[in-house]
TrEMBL record:
Residue span relative to the full protein: 1 to 450 of 530
A cellular component annotation (GO) from this entry: signal recognition particle, endoplasmic reticulum targeting
Protein name (record): Signal recognition particle 54 kDa protein
Protein's job: Signal-recognition-particle (SRP) assembly has a crucial role in targeting secretory proteins to the rough endoplasmic reticulum (ER) membrane. SRP is required for the cotranslational protein translocation for ER import and preferentially recognizes strongly hydrophobic signal sequences. It is involved in targeting the nascent chain-ribosome (RNC) complex to the ER and is proposed to participate in the arrest of nascent chain elongation during membrane targeting. SRP54 binds to the signal sequence of presecretory protein when they emerge from the ribosomes.
One GO biological process term: SRP-dependent cotranslational protein targeting to membrane, translocation
Length: 450
């Protein structure tokens, strides 16, 4: 079962409990939990994690006073509890993730089995840091596989990242050492070392990881894990943890038919956070991972934090500054919404972005990329037809003066319903901005969009 299906199934279980008018509270909760548990198990999540989640949700919901499910407070509690517990499932509660320091040498070593997406992810991470102003270099310490250096070289050239490797040296430890020395001398700030993912014997591979690690002294070791390998992820990550004690995971191929549940279990088994996910073969198919964002996307309720991170990397600073200031104050105007739509259309591929906007992810799943792209264009036409005053408002002017709706609809060649839909989406984003602000102030977790 792919992750989009998992999200749908969990949503389905929650929604059917919420619309249940016949059963009493306890029975409705039980039947919802049964649906959630089955969906998680079918997505390959480890059974003991699922049963812990089940017990946590049940005890939290039974503690509450809810007698009937048809009460707004009870509904909110159910949604929030399910959301929080799903976040806990993918959160290892690491306090401070590693952040490279400017003007210092930061060495990052990659480990993982061949084919997991290691070389691709090395380049993606290099690009990620280069975009954020770091001087980044790539070292190929995979001397086992013929062609490994060529692959890294091609990726690096495409991404315009300096690289180091050797066609003749057979000792990976030596290559790693030379690469680090060279880049250190040239004052590189982030040096990423790619290692081999295969050996004649598994034990030799792990020994090699320990040797390289001893020489390169990484500030962070990252294990790359293919999301599609299911339950095997847990064993694989435990084995790597013993030899290379990685501090973070990059989960690749989340775009494909990944069940993802095995990888979720790997997080818990090794108590290590996922820091990025790979969502395609292209360099930009790479997103930073946060439990809250992941679960928001899984449940199709949008993810304002990732969206802004993406927007910041592709649009100019002044453009986004005003929007960020607004968000920090818990505001989100129609003008912010318009800027966002325009940037998103430059960002592509749409499938990665749509999941972050409330309502869009579901639309994408139902009608496909072309239709979603058309609707986004329509949104921009509608927003183009608004006055400056309207754009800078929170949308309430349209409620106060409905004639504005008709004018904008006519001006954009769309229906009044289209305009109303856009106002509704902007309102959802504004609510998310509000709850993000509240969560920051209160230190707790809000539940965006719900
Ligand atoms: P390595 O052997 O671990 O270095 O793996 P590679 O980086 O060579 O990747 C193996 C294959 O997986 C290549 O065809 C990559 O293009 C592909 N790949 C890597 N990451 C992703 C991803 O996030 N999504 C998809 N669809 N393919 C990926």
């Amino acid at each position: 079962m792919v992750l989009a299906d998992l999200g749908k199934r969990i949503n389905g279980a929650v929604n059917s409990a919420l619309s249940n008018t016949q059963d009493d509270y306890a029975t409705a909760v039980d039947s919802m939990l049964k649906g959630i548990v089955t969906a998680l198990l079918e997505a390959d999540v480890n059974i003991s994690l699922v049963s812990k989640l089940r017990n946590n949700i049940k005890s939290k919901l039974m503690e509450s006073k809810g007698k009937s499910i048809n009460n707004v407070q009870t509904k909110k509690l159910i949604q929030k509890t399910v959301f929080d517990e799903l976040c806990n499932l993918v959160d290892c509660h690491e306090k401070e993730p590693f952040k490279p320091k400017k003007k210092k040498t930061n060495v990052i070593m990659f480990v993982g089995l061949q084919g997991s997406g290691k070389t691709t992810s090395c380049t993606k991470l290099a690009v990620y840091y280069a975009k954020r102003g770091f001087k980044v270099g790539l070292v190929c310490a995979d001397t086992f596989r013929a062609g490994a250096f060529d692959q890294l070289k091609q990726n690096a050239i495409k991404a315009r990242i300096p690289f180091f490797g050797s066609y003749t040296e057979t000792d990976p430890v030596k290559v790693a050492e030379e690469g680090i020395t060279k880049f250190k001398k040239e004052k590189f700030e982030v040096i990423i070392v790619d290692t081999s993912g295969r050996h004649r014997q598994e034990q030799e591979l792990f020994r090699e990881m320990i040797e390289i690690s001893r020489v390169v002294k990484p500030h962070q070791t990252i294990m790359v894990l293919d999301a599609s390998i299911g339950q095997a992820a847990e064993q694989q990550s435990k084995a790597f943890k013993e030899s290379s004690d990685f501090g973070a995971i990059i989960l690749t191929k989340m775009d494909g038919h990944a069940k993802g549940g095995g990888a979720i279990s790997a997080v818990a088994a090794t108590n290590t956070p996922i820091i990025f996910i790979g969502t395609g073969e292209h360099i930009h198919d790479f997103e930073s991972f946060s439990p809250k964002s992941f679960v928001s996307k899984l449940l199709g309720i949008g993810d304002i934090e990732s969206l802004f991170e993406q927007i910041q990397t592709v649009s100019n600073k002044e453009d986004t500054q005003a929007m960020i200031e607004n968000i920090q104050q818990g505001k989100f105007t129609l003008a912010d919404f318009k800027k966002q739509m325009q940037t998103i259309m430059k960002m592509g591929p749409l499938s990665n972005i749509a999941q972050m906007i409330p309502g869009m992810g579901n639309m994408m799943n139902q009608v496909g990329e072309e239709e979603t792209s058309k609707s986004m264009k329509k949104m921009v036409y509608v927003l183009d037809s608004m006055t400056k005053e309207e754009l800078n408002s929170d949308g309430r002017v349209f409620i106060d003066q409905p004639s504005r709706l008709v004018r904008v609809a006519r001006g954009s060649g769309c229906s009044v319903f289209d305009v109303e839909m856009i106002l509704m989406q902007q309102q959802m984003m504004a609510n998310m901005a509000q709850s993000a602000k509240a969560a920051k102030q209160g230190g707790g977790r809000g539940m965006p969009g719900m």
